[in-house]
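Notebook p. 47: complex prediction with pyridoxal-5'-phosphate.
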Amino acid sequence: MNIGTGSAERQVYIGGEYVPENEARVSIFDHAVLYGDAVFDTACAWGGKVFKLDEHIDRLFESAHALKIEIPLDKAGVREVVLEIMRRNKLESAYIKIIVTRGVGRMPLMSPYNCEPNLIAFAIPYLSLIDSGVQQEGIRAGISSMRRIPSESLDAKIKCCNYLNHILMRMEANEAGLDEAIELDIGGYVAEAPGYNVFIAKQGVLYTPGENILVGVTRQTVMELAAAAGMETVVGRLTAFDLYNADEVFLTSTAGGIFAVRELDGRQIGGGKPGPITQLLNQRYTELLESGEQSTPVHPPADA
Ligand SMILES: Cc1ncc(COP(=O)(O)O)c(C=O)c1O
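Predicted complex, structure tokens below:
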């Protein structure tokens, strides 16, 4: 599948209307282009239902509010746009992205005032961020030599369109022959990974960092599934040592699901393959997605 080649068939939402992808245009003066000044969120749909859509929309509004970007539609309007791009592209399972740019200001200067925000949304056939073979075996990761931008400088809770810090850490890992990076914060504690939250399991208890992270929708779901399975999750500081010596380490995200880290910095983690807790949570997560219980149907019921 080619993304961004200008498909005339795919419909996207931009600037208040639905247009073919090859007609979608963003101004070179949009602050998203000039300064990375924009927010986004990623949701996924399976079997005609978008999982936790309202949670993703809530987070998008919180990110935008924190940056004083006013989203041109209300939450119900954004929800309808997402469902409509699914319908227009006849998608049942999809990777969905909603972006809100600061927009074009009066001059191509840095002033964030008097800009007109632009809401963009697209949906493409579902694609996992993780290769299925790698997902089944677990990944090889390394702790990055860089540090996650501290929340004192840019709050990690804001899902903004400036991912350079994450991209550089992923590149460093990939160029060292690894699948992914683990990000430490300025204090040396585990924060997250480029696009994922981090969990460890040790003696039947889950641990996950609570600071300098994007508060992941999947992270929250995992904590709920763990609680339902009688497992406690402790939110707190973790070090590289804790990860090296965990029974299991796994990562979570909407587009990647739940998958194990089998090796970190050349050290085998646990049994060197996805452990029983990772597998159990992954299974419960898949069941939850398939049940549609916490999902928004793309098509309204026939009698609505
Ligand atoms: C930096 C970062 N951390 C964590 C996550 C996981 O969040 P979620 O589970 O909501 O997809 C993401 C997802 O895109 C992310 O970009």
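Notes: Residues 6 and 82 are 20 Å apart (CA to CA). Helices lie at 31-35, 53-66, 75-88, 132-137, 164-175, 217-228, 240-244, 276-291.
Next step: compare against the earlier run before touching the bench.
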